[in-house]
Amino acid sequence: MAGENLYLVGKILGHKQHRTTASYDHLADEHLLYAAEKVGKAIAEAMEI
Predict the structure, then answer these.
(1) How far is CA 49 from CA 36, 44, 46, in A?
(2) CA-CA distance, 46 to 48, in Å (whole number)?
(3) Is residue 41 part of a domain?
(4) Measured on CA atoms in the order 23, 26, 31, 36, is the torsion positive or negative?
(5) Would you call 16 helix, strand, or coil by DSSP?
(6) What is the DSSP letter of 6?
(7) Number of structural domains in the chain
(8) Separation between Cα atoms, residue 19 and residue 11, nearest integer Å
(9) Which of 3, 5, 16, 39 is 20 to 30 A away from residue 31, measured at CA?
(10) Residue 49 has pLDDT above 70, yes or no
(11) CA-CA distance, 2 to 14, in Å (whole number)?
(12) Pairwise CA distance, residues 10 & 20, whole Å
């Protein structure tokens, strides 16, 4: 559920403490890497590298 509010995700999953939901937060890192690579490629193309 990348991009969703952790509080809401925790509620949906029935977590009583936000720390339980936060332990899964690292799973979204691949989306950050993809976005960073996409932005880097766009910058490189704009600079004609």
Answers:
(1) 17, 5, 8
(2) 5
(3) yes
(4) positive
(5) coil
(6) H
(7) 1
(8) 12
(9) 16
(10) no
(11) 18
(12) 8
C-beta separation of 6 from 22 below 8 A = yes
Find the angle CA(28)-CA(19)-CA(11) to the nearest 5 degrees: 80
Best CA proximity match to 6, nearest among 19, 21, 23: 21
pLDDT tens digits for range 2-48 = 667 888 888 888 999 988 888 877 666 777 788 888 888 998 999 98
Please report the pLDDT score of residue 27 as a whole number. 65
Q: What is the pLDDT of residue 14?
A: 92
**Is residue 15 situated within a structural domain?**
yes
Q: Tell me if 1 is assigned to some domain.
A: no
Lookup result for tokens 């993809």: 34
In the three-class reduction of DSSP (H, G, I as helix; E, B as strand; rest coil), residue 49 is classed as coil
